[in-house]
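Reopening this ticket.

The earlier resolution said the output was attached, but the attachment link was broken on my side. Pasting everything inline this time so it's all in one place.
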Amino acid sequence: MRERLKLIRKKLGLNQTEFARLIGLKQTALSMIEVGTTPLTDKNVKLICATFNVNEEWFRTGAGEMFGSSPYVRELLDIFGRLSPDTQEFLLEMARNLLRNQEKKRPG
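Inline output:
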């Protein structure tokens, strides 16, 4: 799974610091996971899959496609990976604001 973790990160165009921040880890923790010093927890597997739309079966076993099936998500991840870190951070903040606004408008 360590190799697939690196592959996900590289496919998204993120360095360890950026990737770790997006899943709530420190860069050193991610580095230790990637080299095998620290095991990858089930919680982190699920978080990575949810955050980056990674197919959990592929992540755990290598079977199937790397990313979920939505063409919108794949395109967004591809674009996101090619943006500069500053632009990625800006886009994430915009997405968070959009989500907050959407949640406020939901009938409940």
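Reporter confirms the inline version is readable. Residues 2-105 form a domain with the 434 Repressor (Amino-terminal Domain) fold (CATH 1.10.260.40). The radius of gyration is 15 Å.
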